[in-house]
Structures are given as structure tokens and as C-alpha cells.
Amino acid sequence: MVLIFDQCNNVLLLPKVVTLVVLMVSIPTTNGVGNNFNDEFEQTFGDHRLKIDGEGQASLILDQYSGAGFRSKKDYLFGRVDMPMKLVSGNSAGTVTTFYLTSDQSTGRHDEIDFEFLGNVSGEPYTLHTNIYTQGKGDREQQFHLWFDPTTAFHTYSILWNTRLIMFLVDEIPIRVFRANEDIGMPFPKDQPMRIQCSLWSAEWATQGGRIRTDWSKAPFIANYGKFKIDACIATGGKSSCTNVPEVPGSWRTHDLDFKGNNRLKWARAKYMIYDYCGDTKRFPQGVPPECKRD
């Protein structure tokens, strides 16, 4: 299924393959561009439960003994990462499939940008859970359902991170934008290098608030990661490789929402967002966080 928007920004669903107009042009920097799995990633846990095929695609396997994961070999300080994924099919209740960026968590003041996919029983939709940590503080969850079945084919999930904003995209559709609001006292991830992390694991809380647990008779569970793209600034000694590289208009380093992108963001949020911390007055009885008042 392909999404096309008409002149009034209404979404049209087309069953045949067409050419999409991409929301942004990503012009590679002189450093940090990669798309070979073994060059870019290393396994973090799971032993034989990480499989790499001849085309460089990765599969993570979850059984009753362990899940699996991998991470980038390099640290990055700003960039764009595109990760095609095909999620666990069938009864995926209790499973969590992830793609995220994180700095060193042992400091207690880490930064993190999360895509987490919470499984469900057969016939019920996945929950796409997003969160952002700054200086060790999270609690900025937004959740979505998707406008397609994420288990039947690869779809591309992207994190764009520059000095002005963090943007989450699904097949080039922006679903969330988190802006730098340091002028009102809100920290923004800009000083701590991050690594790309991906994993598949089981969590009791993942499905319907923990009411439904993993059915291990359905194991092994398998999530697939496709031909990724990393266009980012390598961090060495805490400094970005792009510090002295001029910004190129139209690249991820200067990207922001244009008129069409803003309307697509509104469409995704109006139709598919199921939770927004900024609207949770019970959780924040003294008032929602200050950045919410600017969104």
C-alpha cells in the first residue's frame, strides 16, 4: 500500500506501486555514511539468535531463553538513520522490537531517542511507542497505531537528529517532532554522542498493560532488519566530525517541516496517535511540561 496526498492533503491509498515524492533530500556528509552491516554493527547479546544473510539483512530471534540485539560500532553526534524493519508476525504479544539511539546509560544522565514496537495478539494492531530522554529524564511518551500491517513487508523507520529538532518518520511520513527548547529551560540532546541500538526481547508490560503475556508455544519470534542507511556525524573524543563542515541546504542538518510535511504530521497524529504525554493531565496535575505549550 502506498500513501499519496492530494492538493488538499487528503490521503489516498493506492494498491499499486507508484513513485513517492520524498520529503527531504539527504546529502551525505564527508563522514559517517554506511550501509554494510558487518562494517557498521556488532552484536550485543543473544549468541546465535542474530542471523545475517548474504544481502546484509539481519534477523533477531526471541525464544524462551533470550532475545537478541546489535548496536553500531561508532558513536554519532547528529545525523539521520533509516532502518527498514519487518516486525514479528502472528501472535506477538509480550514482544518488544526496538530501534533507537542512546548515549552511555551508565552515567545516569543519558540521552535517548526511541522507537519501540509493542506486540499484540493476532488480529490486533502493534503499538508504536516513542520516547525521548534528555539528561536522564524521559516521560515524553507518544504512541501510535500504524496505517499498514508492519509484519508483512519492510517499512522504513527513520530518526533525524540535528541541532534544532528530532524527527521521527515512518516511510517518510513525519509522526513526531521534538524541538530544541533550551530557551525555556528544557535540555536538548546535543552534547552526548549516541550509538544506534536494535533489539528483540520479551516484556511483561508490553501488551495491553501486561494483561496478556508472551505465548512461548509460538516461539521462536523473529524480527527482520533490512538495508539500513546511516548518514551521520561520527563522534570522536566527544566531538562531532561535522563541526567544521558547512551546512548544506536541504540536508538533514538543516531539515525542518515544510507546508506539506506539516500537514502530513497533522494527518498522522490526528488519525493514528493513541497517547500523548502532553495531553495527560492526570499524570501532570500541576501542568504539562513546558515544551508541550509550544507544540
TrEMBL record:
<keyword id="KW-0326">Glycosidase</keyword>
<keyword id="KW-0732">Signal</keyword>
<dbReference type="Pfam" id="PF00722">
    <property type="entry name" value="Glyco_hydro_16"/>
</dbReference>
<keyword id="KW-0325">Glycoprotein</keyword>
<dbReference type="GO" id="GO:0071555">
    <property type="term" value="P:cell wall organization"/>
</dbReference>
<feature type="active site" description="Proton donor">
    <location>
        <position position="116"/>
    </location>
</feature>
<protein>
    <recommendedName>
        <fullName>Xyloglucan endotransglucosylase/hydrolase</fullName>
        <ecNumber>2.4.1.207</ecNumber>
    </recommendedName>
</protein>
<dbReference type="InterPro" id="IPR000757">
    <property type="entry name" value="Beta-glucanase-like"/>
</dbReference>
<dbReference type="InterPro" id="IPR013320">
    <property type="entry name" value="ConA-like_dom_sf"/>
</dbReference>
<keyword id="KW-0964">Secreted</keyword>
<dbReference type="Pfam" id="PF06955">
    <property type="entry name" value="XET_C"/>
</dbReference>
<comment type="function">
    <text>Catalyzes xyloglucan endohydrolysis (XEH) and/or endotransglycosylation (XET). Cleaves and religates xyloglucan polymers, an essential constituent of the primary cell wall, and thereby participates in cell wall construction of growing tissues.</text>
</comment>
<dbReference type="InterPro" id="IPR010713">
    <property type="entry name" value="XET_C"/>
</dbReference>
<keyword id="KW-0808">Transferase</keyword>
<keyword id="KW-0378">Hydrolase</keyword>
<feature type="signal peptide">
    <location>
        <begin position="1"/>
        <end position="32"/>
    </location>
</feature>
<feature type="glycosylation site" description="N-linked (GlcNAc...) asparagine">
    <location>
        <position position="120"/>
    </location>
</feature>
<dbReference type="InterPro" id="IPR044791">
    <property type="entry name" value="Beta-glucanase/XTH"/>
</dbReference>
<keyword id="KW-0052">Apoplast</keyword>
<dbReference type="GO" id="GO:0004553">
    <property type="term" value="F:hydrolase activity, hydrolyzing O-glycosyl compounds"/>
</dbReference>
<dbReference type="InterPro" id="IPR008264">
    <property type="entry name" value="Beta_glucanase"/>
</dbReference>
<comment type="similarity">
    <text>Belongs to the glycosyl hydrolase 16 family.</text>
</comment>
<dbReference type="GO" id="GO:0048046">
    <property type="term" value="C:apoplast"/>
</dbReference>
<dbReference type="InterPro" id="IPR008263">
    <property type="entry name" value="GH16_AS"/>
</dbReference>
<keyword id="KW-1015">Disulfide bond</keyword>
<keyword id="KW-0961">Cell wall biogenesis/degradation</keyword>
<feature type="domain" description="GH16">
    <location>
        <begin position="28"/>
        <end position="225"/>
    </location>
</feature>
<dbReference type="GO" id="GO:0010411">
    <property type="term" value="P:xyloglucan metabolic process"/>
</dbReference>
<keyword id="KW-0134">Cell wall</keyword>
<dbReference type="GO" id="GO:0042546">
    <property type="term" value="P:cell wall biogenesis"/>
</dbReference>
<dbReference type="GO" id="GO:0016762">
    <property type="term" value="F:xyloglucan:xyloglucosyl transferase activity"/>
</dbReference>
<dbReference type="InterPro" id="IPR016455">
    <property type="entry name" value="XTH"/>
</dbReference>
<feature type="active site" description="Nucleophile">
    <location>
        <position position="112"/>
    </location>
</feature>
